[in-house]
Amino acid sequence: MLTYGDGLTNQNIKKLVNFHIKHKKIATMTTVKPPARFGEVFLKGSRIIKFEEKSQLNENWINGGFFVFNYEIFKFIKEDQIMLERQPLTKLTKINQLRAFRHTGFWQCMDTMRDKNILLSLLKNKKAPWIRYK
What we know:
134 residues; alpha+beta; Spore Coat Polysaccharide Biosynthesis Protein SpsA, Chain A; 4-stranded mixed sheet; two-stranded antiparallel sheet; 23% helix
C-alpha cells in the first residue's frame, strides 16, 4: 500500500484492498471527485448556456493518492528517480493492469495554505470525517 501523504480521506481501506484482490491487477488507484474551487461556466461561443457555482466535478475523476500494488509493480520501477505517475502508471494503463477504486466519500488534499485551513477548521469544529468522535 502506498499514499502520497498529502491527503485525508474517510476511505474504507478494507474495501480498497478487497477491490484490489478481486480484480487481480498489478495496481489499484483510489480515484475521487473533489469539490470544484470555482463555479463552472458552460459556453456556446460567447454565450453562457449554463452556470453552476462550486459544484462537484461532473465527469472527471482524479488520482486520490492512495494505492494498492502487487509486488510486480517493481518491474515497472527501474530507477530511483522514476516518477510513479509518468512511467509506471502510464505503462500499467496501456497493458490493462491499473484499476480505479472510486471513492465517493470525504477526500481533501493539503497542498496549499487554503487546504490546510479547511482541514484545521473541520478539526476545530469536530467535523473531521476522517476521525471517529465519541
